[in-house]
Amino acid sequence: MTNYIDKIHFQELAKQDPADVCRRAICKYDDVKKFYTLSVWGEEYAIYPHEFKIDRIGKNVQSSHDYLYLFIIHYLLKSKEIDISRDWISEKDIPGGTTFFRGPHAIPTHLISERFGNNIKKLRRRCEQLHGIPLDIVDVAYRFEITAHIPVAALYWEGDDEFLPEAKILYDRTIIEHLASDIIFALAVGICTRLGSPYR
Questions:
Q1: For the CA atoms of the chain, what is the radius of gyration?
Q2: Which end of the chain has less neighbouring CB within 10 Å, N or C?
């Protein structure tokens, strides 16, 4: 699952002080087996810097897009020890976002709207299955804790005779302190893929 991740990222992580990584990213480290354990969207992942691999831990885990693994390694490398702002922003509010997040980097929210259409009840079930916390905004909105420092919100507008159903992903403003735009895009692809995927 991690063959496409450049080994240099694992090598960089191997050089870092585990105590510092654990403090910044809020994760754990096994000094004997030399791997980190990080909770991502309610599931545990084991990251082995010296073996260049990331494994999911447990049974009956949700399927993950390959890009989510890219997010994980960069989160361990770059996350900062800061509090979330509780101020939601879209990808367009990220510096350079209006030009970056389009074309091949457009957030694939159509994966959500094409799956659920106007079936709001089904969408709510999916969000709750993925540990979402409902927000009292727009037709349907849920907050998800991807990691302790990276909350996101999925918003959904029901379609009508004039407009198709529409989904949108929002991020805590502090995400720009942790991740570069290409890694935010990788995370967004992982989010849209999982929300739009069939039930287990």
A1: 17
A2: C
* For the chain, domain boundaries: 7-78, 88-196
Percent of the chain surpassing pLDDT 90 = 85
Q: If residue 115 lies in a helix (H) or strand (E), which one and from where to where?
A: helix 110-116
Task: Dump pLDDT digits (tens) for 146-166.
Answer: 999 999 999 999 988 788 999
Number of Cβ within 10 Å of residue 52's Cβ equals: 19
- What class does CATH assign to 88-196? alpha beta
Q: Say which range, 4-13, 99-108, 149-158, has the weakest mean pLDDT.
A: 4-13
Q: What's the Cα-to-Cα distance from 75 to each of 10, 13, 21, rounded to whole Å?
A: 12, 10, 10
Q: How far apart are CA 56 and CA 64, in angstroms?
A: 9
Residue with tokens 């994966």: 111
Query: What does pTM read for this prediction?
Result: 0.91
The dihedral through the CA atoms of 36, 174, 185, 119 has a sign that is positive
